[in-house]
Amino acid sequence: MLRVPIELAKPKMPLALPVHHPDNPARVLLHAGTELTGRAIERLSGQGVREVWITWPGLEFLRDHANPQLDQSHRQMTRTISRVFDRVADDAAVEADYSTLKQSIGAFMEKLMESPRASEFLSEILGAGAPLVRRSGAVCLMSLLMGLKLGGYLVRQRPRLSPRDATNIVNLGVGAMLHDIGMLHVPASAARAYYAHGDESDPAFREHVEIGHRLVSGRVDPTASATVLHHHQRYDGNGFPEIDEDDAIYGPCGRRGETIHVFPRIVAAADLYDRLRFGAEDAPVRPRVDALRAMHDAEHAGRLDPVVLEGLLAVTPPYPVGSVVTLTTGDNAVVTRWTHRDPCRPEVRVIGGLDTPPEDQTVGVTLDLSKRRDVAVARAEGFDVANANFTTSNPVAADAA
C-alpha cells in the first residue's frame, strides 16, 4: 500500500483502504478497491480528505499491519467525544456523561494492544472534521501511544502505585481527549490567536484550563482532571496556571519539572506537536518532519519533559510507513520502515513516478538511509524538507524509559 497525499492522487489509482468523510467518520465516501477518477479526487479534496491509501505492487506486506477493528474503535472514540462536546457547548452547567468516553478509550486500548503497529495507519484518520474534535482525537491517540512506549518511565514517575496500575493509561486518554474542553467557553478570537501564533499570553485563552477543570472535576479520575488543568505547565516552570505545588484544590500537580504529573507532561508534548503541524484552521498543514524539528528549536526549549519528547519521537515518525517521498537523487520512494534512533533516515523502496499506473510499476531497490549517508529525503507531503531533517539529541531515552 502507498500513502498518497490527495494532491498527488491520480485517476485509476485503486484504493487499498476505504475513505471516510472527515466530518462524519461513520460515513464511507469510497470503498476499498474503488478506482479513483478525476472527479472523485476533486470531491475528496473539497471535503477535506488529505490522503488516501493506494494499492501498489511490491508493498502488499504493509496491508498486514492494517486493523479494521482498531479503525472502527478509533472512530467510535471520536464520535463519543463529539457528542460530549456538543452537550457541553450547549450548556456549560450540564453534567456530561464522561463514563462513555472512558469506556470507548478502554475499548480502543484493547484493540491497540492487539495490533500496535496498526496505529501508523490511524495517525490522521480524523481528517478535517470539527477542529476541536479533530485536535482532541489526535492528541488523545498520540498521548496513548506515548504512554505505551514510556511504560517504564510511568512506573518510576508513579512510585506509589503498583507497576500494573502505574502503566494503566486509560485516564491519560480521558485527560488527553478532554484537555481542551474549556475552549468551548472562551472567545473564538483567543483560540484563533493561539493556534495561529502560539500566543499563550491572552488571559481569556489562559482561562480555558480552569474552565475545563471545573467542567470535569469530580466527574473523571483526578489524574484526568489534573491533565485538563495542567497541560500548559512547562517543564521549566514557566507555564500556567500559576498555582502553588501544594494547592489542595487543584490536585497533585505542581508547575515545574517532575512536580507536574506525568500525564499532563505527555499531553503537553502531543498538544504542541498538533499545534505546530496544523496551526490555524485555514493555514496549510505543516510537514510532520518540520513540526517535529521545530519542537527542538530554542523557542520551545525548556517547555517539555525531555524523556517525554523522545517518547513522542518514538511513536511519531517524520516520514510514516507507506508515505511517498522524493530523495536527493531525484527518485520517488515509499517508506517501508523507520527507527526513532535515526528518524529522518528511514528505509525506503524506490518506485516510479506516480503518473505511471500501478500495474505498470516495477519493484525498485530498497535503500536504508541510515547507512546510505549520501542520500536523504528531499521532499515530502508536497514540501521541500531537505533542511528540516534532524537527528535526535538522546536517541536511547525512550528505550531507557
Secondary structure: number of strands: 10
Whole-number radius of gyration? 21 Å
Biggest sheet, open or closed, and with what strands and sense? 6 strands, antiparallel
CATH domain class of the largest domain: Mainly Alpha
Task: Specify the structural class.
Answer: alpha+beta
For CATH, the homologous superfamily of the largest domain is named as Hypothetical protein af1432
Rounded average pLDDT: 86
Total number of domains: 3
- Mass-distribution shape: globular
Query: Helix share of residues?
Result: 25-40%
CATH topology of the largest domain: Hypothetical protein af1432
* Total count of helical runs of at least 4 residues: 14
Task: Walk me through this protein's architecture.
The protein is α+β, with helices and mostly antiparallel strands. The protein folds into three domains: 54 residues, Molybdopterin biosynthesis moea protein, domain 2, CATH 3.90.105.10; 248 residues, Hypothetical protein af1432; 77 residues, no CATH class. It is 39% helix and 10% strand. The protein contains 14 helices and ten strands. The strands form three sheets. The chain has a six-stranded antiparallel beta sheet with strand order 8-7-6-5-9-10, with no helix packed on it. A hairpin with a 2-residue loop joins β9 and β10. α3 packs across α7, α4 runs antiparallel to α7 and α10 crosses α11. The longest helix is centred in the first third of the chain and has 23 residues. The chain is globular and about 60 Å long. The relative contact order is 0.11. About 2% of the residues have low confidence.
